[in-house]
Amino acid sequence: MYKYVTTVGICYLVTLSVPVTYAQCAEHWSPAFGVPGMNGQVRALAHFQAIAGSKLLIGGGFSVIGDLDTPVVSLWSGYGWQRMGLRLDEPLNCFAVLGSCADAQLYAGGEFIWTMPGEQQIGRLARWDGQEWNGIPGFPNAPVRSLCAFDDGSGEALFVGGEFRDIGSERFNFIAKWDGVSWQHLGNGLSITGFYVSANAMKVYDDGRGPALYVGGVFTRAGDVDAYGIARWDGQAWESLDLGTSGPVYALEVYDDGDGPALYAAGTFTYAGGVLANHIAKWDGLQWSAVGVGVTPSGVVNAMKRATIAGRNELYVGGIFEQAGETPARNLARWDGSIWSGVGEGIDLPIDSYIYSADPGVYALESYDAGNGEELYIGGIFDASGD
Questions:
Q1: CB-based contact 12:33 (threshold 8 Å)
Q2: What is the DSSP letter of 23?
Q3: Among residues 128, 179, 297, 360, which one has the fewest Cβ atoms lying within 10 Å of its Cβ?
Q4: Is the link from the previous residue into 248 a cis peptide, with omega within 30 of 0?
Q5: Predicted pLDDT of residue 346
Q6: How far, in whole angstroms, is CA 258 from its chain's centroid?
Q7: Burial call 185-222: b when 16+ CB within 10 Å, e when fewer
Q8: DSSP label of 63
């Protein structure tokens, strides 16, 4: 069944357990959350293995969950909420976790600039030390869109992507590495013939040559290499993925459809490597291929998540679309390696989209087991799931 919440006609977070027989609708949080309603948008979900146990991180642009005055970052344990500070005017976009358990380090990135007591500023990027948020020296001068933990051979570090050119007084060109002490360059970074550049998504994938960092976004060059929408960083140099994509990439995920792990890229493009691929494509380390007919009509895929729900290993895709393959699928669909299918009756978007700071749609997907088996959590700006 679906479990979800609506507040003033807007629904921000649902969970899905399958098999799905029908959708149920009520204007309150399900018992899994225990509180009724949310006043903003969910932009980021992540699984955090803390000392006290497994947690689901929820971030975005909200300040209230039910009757709780809750900042834009919260933890859900399956039994209750934990407030995590950061009362922001601008949204939080992404999380990354380095290490695990006692050594886990949690980072959050977004569009925020928060002035702490004593006039200390935390902006765009912050680190949680278990008790409070701390700023990162020389924080980026524009929004952070993606974070990723990756070991390029010198130890695990945080990779940060977004719309920023500079960090402090130094030019980095939209992507940088933070090793816990200092900022480091990834070659010459990213660039484009034009004005707008953004590193929207990052994912670690091994194509047989060893793990590397794959970056998707809005760019036409990575370092000194022509790279359209997506590029590979091995810790030393940039590399293109054939002809790249014909438009922006917003999500990356690794999924094994039975032929071995492959990298899936999704966004607004219609071609990948010269192959017709409606908003989603598969890279096996050598070449691009279509993922069925993809998702249509014109729209966008904002999020992807591989999840095993009820024993079925599938790739879930969320965004703004009406059909996946030959199947109706309202803004949420799944790919099993061979065919597309809808997820229940899908996700409905609000009609009055002009009142939001971002386009309505599905923005975040994450799997989490709160004690009742793995479930898929869907976050974004929407007003109903199923019926």
A1: no
A2: -
A3: 297
A4: no
A5: 87
A6: 24
A7: ebeebbbeeeeebbbbbbbbbebeeeebbbbbbbbebb
A8: S
User: What is the distance between the alpha carbons of residues 282 and 253, in angstroms, rounded to a whole number?
Assistant: 10
- What is the Cα–Cα distance from 200 to 163, expressed in whole angstroms? 9
Whether pLDDT at 9 is above 60: no
All residues at 6 or more sequence positions from 252 whose CB lies less than 8 Å from its CB, including other chains: 201, 202, 203, 205, 214, 216, 230, 263, 264, 265, 266, 304
Grouping H, G, I as helix, E, B as strand and the rest as coil, residue 260 is coil
Give the length of the chain.
387
In sequence order, what are the residues at sequence separation of 6 or more whose Cβ sits closer than 8 angstroms to the Cβ of residue 182? none
Residue 188, pLDDT > 60, answer: yes
What are the phi and psi torsion angles at 103 (to 5°)? -100, 5
Residues 127/76, Cβ–Cβ less than 8 Å:
no
Pairing of strands 81-83, 73-76: antiparallel
Residue 96 contacts residue 107 (beta carbons within 8 Å): yes
Q: Is residue 214 within 8 Å of residue 204, measured between CB atoms?
A: yes
Other C-beta atoms closer than 10 Å to the C-beta of 89 total 11
Give the amino acid at 82.
Q
Instruction: State the distance between the two ends of the chain, measured CA to CA, in whole angstroms.
Output: 11
> Cα–Cα distance between 156 and 105 in angstroms, integer?
11
- The predicted-structure confidence for 228-262, as pLDDT tens digits, reads as follows 999 999 999 999 999 999 999 999 999 999 999 99
| Per-residue pLDDT tens over the stretch 349-379 | 876 654 555 788 999 999 988 777 888 888 8
Residue 299: exposure state from Cβ atoms within 10 A (0-12, 13-18, ≥19): middle
* Owner of token pair 């609708």: 25
User: Quick one: how far is CA 202 from the chain centroid?
Assistant: 9
Contact yes or no for 262/241 (Cβ under 8 A):
no
DSSP assignment of 299-368, as one string?
-EEEEEEEEEETTEEEEEEEEE-SEETTEE-SSEEEE-SS-EEE-TT-EEPPS-GGGSSS--EEEEEEEE
Beta carbons of 292 and 325 less than 8 angstroms apart = yes
Residue type, 375: E
